[in-house]
Specification:
Length: about 325
């Protein structure tokens, strides 16, 4: 009997080819509503998951499910606890996308500092005078403050320090400082918020971090500072951020992620001149899509062939 892999949101050919060559049957899903997933997971031994939510109801409907493998890093869209109780492995692809997300972050720092999006829109609309209406800010010598200095944060730090000549400080209570010679680590998130010219979030969304960047924290930032969130939308309280931006308590923000995706058209953050938004595509380069698909497929193959996965997220109960 060949094992069946459900892929609810299509992936790069590299991952599908890998699975086919190993003898798996692939079922591309027809939608990502809970009802559709509950129906389509039946008879499947694995799910290759992107950003659709996988709550307990979906996992329970997959009576033959052995592994759910995340195309990317964040597993906040998967009920990992239920998976563990049901004996289902959760794996992810943490080495696939850090460099691509870090490049996107650097792009957003430059775009914020030099008002690139605002100037682009103005020039296209015939307003060449924008050159005298908004002034950019130099990046060299400025302080980048990282909250979360794991894989992505470390690469951002290296590029910002070496390439942009920034001073990098960071808050991450769980990292070993000797791993990060390019970052001046502090044990105070407030120090990062109060000191940095650019505050960039690179931590996971979990019960401790959801809503962590709230009004009080945002209002600690310098009026000239910028906030970047390429981590997860829920970490920042969006209404508090919008208030700070409207009141010019901070200079601007760049967001790749939103509490609700896609964001509501009425979300005030979509309407402000001092905000740059991208559609959760920091990792979506051609090369990275191939790596994410391959590494997620590898996790499925490892579990279904009885091996310990290279990138386990949980230890399922047997
Ligand atoms: N925008 C995108 O497309 C995209 C792509 C990949 C990852 N991400 C997000 O970026 C996050 C970081 O990815 P990564 O690969 O660097 O993960 P990682 O696990 O290597 O690093 C996360 C770091 O956050 C730290 N951390 C945890 N809780 C913290 C807290 N309360 N305060 C400060 N630091 C804390 C951890 O110690 C760790 O060092 C992911 O969790 C994911 O949500 C977004």
């Amino acid at each position: 009997m060949s094992y069946k892999v459900l892929i609810p949101q299509d992936i790069s050919e590299a991952g599908k080819k890998y699975l086919r060559e190993k003898g798996y049957e692939i079922k591309i899903g027809s939608g990502i509503s809970v009802a559709t997933l509950q129906q389509e997971v039946q008879g499947c031994h694995a799910i290759l998951a992107r950003i659709a939510p996988f709550p307990a109801e979906v996992l329970r409907a997959g009576k033959q499910l052995k592994v759910i493998s995340r195309h990317g890093v964040g597993v906040d869209n998967i009920d990992v606890q239920t998976a563990t109780e049901l004996g289902i492995y959760v794996t992810n692809a943490p080495e696939s996308n850090a460099g691509s997300v870090a490049e996107h972050t650097i792009g957003l720092i430059v775009a914020l500092a030099r008002n690139l999006v605002r100037c682009h829109i103005a020039v296209r609309n015939g307003n060449f005078e924008i050159r005298n209406q908004v002034l950019g800010t130099d990046i060299a010598g400025k302080v980048l403050g990282l909250i979360g200095v794991g894989r992505i944060g470390k690469i951002v730090a290296g590029k910002a320090a070496a390439g942009l000549e920034m001073k990098v400080i960071g808050y991450d209570p769980f990292v070993e400082p000797s791993r990060l010679p390019e970052v001046e680590l502090t044990d105070s998130v407030e120090h990062v918020l109060k000191t940095a010219d650019f505050v960039s979030l690179h931590l996971p969304a979990n019960e401790k971090t959801i809503g962590m960047i709230d009004r009080a924290k945002i209002f600690m930032m310098k009026p000239s500072a910028y906030l970047l969130n390429v981590a997860r939308g829920g970490i920042v309280r969006e209404n508090d951020l919008a208030e700070a931006l409207v009141e010019k308590r901070i200079s601007g923000a760049a967001l790749d992620v939103f509490a609700k995706e896609p964001p509501d058209p009425e979300n005030p953050l979509l309407k402000l001149d001092n905000v740059i938004v991208t559609p959760h595509n920091a990792a979506l380069t051609r090369e990275c899509m191939d790596r994410m698909a391959l590494h997620a497929a590898q996790g499925i193959h490892e579990v279904l062939s009885g091996r310990t996965p290279t990138w386990p997220v949980n230890r399922p109960k047997t």
